[in-house]
Automatic annotation (TrEMBL):
Residues 26-269 form the Endonuclease/exonuclease/phosphatase domain. CDD domains: EEP-1 (cd09083). This is Endonuclease/exonuclease/phosphatase family protein. Keywords: Endonuclease, Hydrolase, Nuclease, Signal. It comes from Chitinophaga horti. InterPro entries: CCR4/nocturin_mRNA_transcr, Endo/exonu/phosph_ase_sf, Endo/exonuclease/phosphatase. Gene3D superfamilies: Endonuclease/exonuclease/phosphatase (3.60.10.10). Residues 1-20 form the signal peptide.
Amino acid sequence: MKQILTALFLLLACASNTEAQRMNVATYNVRFDNPRDSGNLWKDRKAALINLVRFHDFDIFGTQEGFKSQLDDIVHALPAYERYGKGRDNGMDAGEHSAIFFKKDKFKLLDKGDFWLSETPDKPGKGWDATCCNRICSWVYLQDVASKKKFYFFNVHYDHQGQVARRESSKLILAKIAAIAGKTPAILTGDFNAKPDSEPYQLLATSKSIKDTYSMVKVPYANNSSYNGFGRDLDGEGVIDHIFVTPQFSVYKWGILTDTYVGKFPSDHFPVLTVVELKK
C-alpha cells in the first residue's frame, strides 16, 4: 500500500509540474483612452477589462494602444504583474504603447528593448507609406522561475492604413526576432491589422521561424472576429490579433475571449488567448 501511495504521489506531482510549465499567453488591444468613445469611456470599462485579465489568469500578455495612464491603472489593480514598453511617440512615456505584462513570481526579467516599424527602427518615426502614427514593437527576455527556461516575448501593433508599411513590418519583425532572439525560443503577439489571407500575415505564418498558434491546435475557439468595434462589428470572421511562436513551443489551446459586461465590451477588440509550453 505504501508503494502504491508513493507512486500515486509522484504521478500527481509530475502532472502538477507539467501544468505549472504551461503558460496562458494573450494579446489584447485595450483601445486607447478616447474621450470621443461615448458610452465606452476608459473610466467605465477599465474595471471589466482588468477583471477579464484576472479571471482568465493571463501569465504574460501583450497590449496595444494603451496610454501610460491606462497601463498604470492595470498595474495598480493587478500588482502581481510587471510591465515593460516605451511610448511610441518619444521612446519614453508619450503616445500609445505596445506594453508587455508578465507575472513577477513566474518570470525573471533578463533584458528588454524596443524598435520602431520603419526604415529607421532605432528611433521614433513613421514607416514606409504610414501617414497616421509611429508604430513600435517592444520585447522582453524572460526566464521561467520554476523551470529556468528562457524565452523572448515580442509585442507589436501594425499600421492600420499603410499597405506597404504592414508588409515591410512583417519583414522587419522576422529580421529582428532572428537578430535579437537568435535560436532562443520566442513568442510574438500583436494587433497586426492583417487577416490570415493577407500578405503581411502570410509573410509571418509561412516563414520557417514562427507559426500561428491558431494553426497548431485541433479545435480553435473562434466564435467571432477579434475586432468587435464595441459591438458594432460582430458579424465578421476575420482575425487580426495573432499569437505566433517559434518551433520550441507546444500549443494546447487557442481562443477568442468574447467576455462582456452588462451588454458592453471592455475594448473594441477581444483578447486572444493561447496556452503554450516550452518543449523539453
